[in-house]
């Protein structure tokens, strides 16, 4: 960690999300970390069928909901889903209705 963060990094929180699914269920994990090292970790279990990308969206939206309640002003989010990241950055267009709904909610 930097001792003297730049003006842009002050107050910056990091959100990392990862989701997975299998025949017995689906779930996700998210880690929210403040610049000073305060960390919140969450495990999410979903009671519905979903694709890996849908689970990644669920985790991202859950993380952003937590961030909103904490009144965090600056967030850097990461996901290992190329589709979710590309859509969030505006680099891709949603091809499926379910993904378009997640994107519009985002």
Plain-language structure description:
The protein has helices spanning 52-69, 82-88, 97-105, and strands spanning 12-22, 25-34, 39-46, 74-79. A 4-stranded mixed sheet has the order 3-2-1-4. Mean pLDDT is 83; it is low at 1-9. With 106 residues, the protein is α+β, with helices and mostly antiparallel strands. A hairpin with a 2-residue loop joins strand 1 and strand 2. Helix 1 packs parallel to helix 3. The protein is globular. 32% of the residues lie in helices and 33% in strands. It has a domain at 12-80: 2-Layer Sandwich (Nucleotidyltransferase, domain 5). It comes from Cephalotus follicularis.
Describe this structure in a few short sentences.
With 106 residues, this protein is an alpha+beta fold.
* Succession of helices and strands: EEEHEHH
Question: The CATH topology of the domain at 12-80 is what?
Answer: Nucleotidyltransferase, domain 5
Instruction: Please state the overall shape, judged from the principal axes of the Cα atoms.
Output: globular
Number of helical segments with 4 or more residues: 3
Look at the structure and give the CATH class of the domain at 12-80: Alpha Beta
Task: Spell out the blueprint of helices and strands.
Layout lengths: L11 E11 L2 E10 L4 E8 L5 H18 L4 E6 L2 H7 L8 H9 L1
Parallel strand pairs: 1-4
Antiparallel strand pairs: 1-2, 2-3
InterPro entries: RNaseH-like_sf (IPR012337), RNaseH_domain (IPR002156), RNaseH_sf (IPR036397)
Organism: Cephalotus follicularis (Albany pitcher plant)
Pfam family, one: RVT_3
